Amino acid sequence: MFSIARLGLASLHLACLALFWLPCSWAALGVCLACYLFRMFGITAGFHRYFAHRTYRTGRIFQCLLACLGTAAAQRGPLWWVARHRQHHRAADTAGDIHSPVVHSLWWARLGWTLCRKYDAANPRLVKDWHTYPELRWLDRHYLVPPAVLAIGAMSLGLLLERYAPGLHTSGLQMLVYGFVLSTVLLYHSTFAVNSLAHRCGHRRFATPDHSRNNWLVAVVTLGEGWHNNHHYYPAAERQGFYWWEIDMTHYIFTILAWWHIVWDVHAPPACIYHTR
């Protein structure tokens, strides 16, 4: 029997078939891109670099905003996501790693494990440091709320534009499918590419115990997460593109946020890595 999460995953993929019948518009494509980028930032900057690895510090308000953005990506709640990711680092590419493409397969690492009921629950002991925040516990329990709010908001925006700006040639259904459904499915496969492709395809700069690899294409679509071998070598660093030619959009945004004192104590890679090529 499908859980709500698995049913939602299947439904979103099926809903993408509507793209073959719906007309497209620049407004819908723009909202699709915005929803993708903001929520990808919530995953990489929030769920991953902040909650999972604590690579920088920030205030309670921005912390909550990151948690909401990450949860809106429809990849479960922050505590579940972080517990799963910390387990991945504890046992990367061993039998204890539930989404290793080396131990299992690319299909399993990319999508298969998310369909298995065995992994519905995560070890709460791995996220004891975040259990003191009631808003994070609430988001983890009600992880469907932020995606639902976003879906309703996208459709409402489309209806408003259809009525008051007909020249944009959009509609409620079009905005729902492009702005929410398509952007969410793209988020899934971009994020899951880190679990799968970035452990099989790419180059290895550092001799880590796992099979992590640096993959520039995955880095581009995930705002910097594709420099995965760098990350596994030194997961405490906020920056994952260690060198100037390794594009890491999340790091560039953090540089600006640090200027504005929205984030601070940003952990840099150790100086010794620049002598390792």
Layout of helices and strands, plus pairs?
Layout: H1 4-15, H2 26-52, E1 57-58, H3 60-71, H4 78-90, H5 106-110, H6 134-141, H7 145-164, H8 172-196, H9 216-221, H10 228-233, H11 249-259, E2 263-264
Antiparallel strand pairs: 1-2
Could you explain how this protein is built, in words?
This protein is mostly helical. The protein has one domain. Helix content is 52%, strand content 1%. The chain is built from eleven helices and two strands, in the order ααβαααααααααβ. It has a two-stranded antiparallel sheet with strand order 1-2.
Task: Identify the quaternary structure here.
Answer: single chain
Q: What Rg, in angstroms, do the CA atoms define?
A: 19 Å
Order of helices and strands: HHEHHHHHHHHHE
Mean pLDDT equals: 93
The parts where pLDDT drops under 50 for at least 5 residues are none
Q: Approximately how much beta-strand content do the residues carry?
A: under 5%
Brief characterization of the structure:
The chain has 277 residues and is mostly helical. The chain has one domain. Helices cover 52% and strands 1% of the residues.
Descriptors:
277 residues, mainly alpha, 11 helices, 52% helix
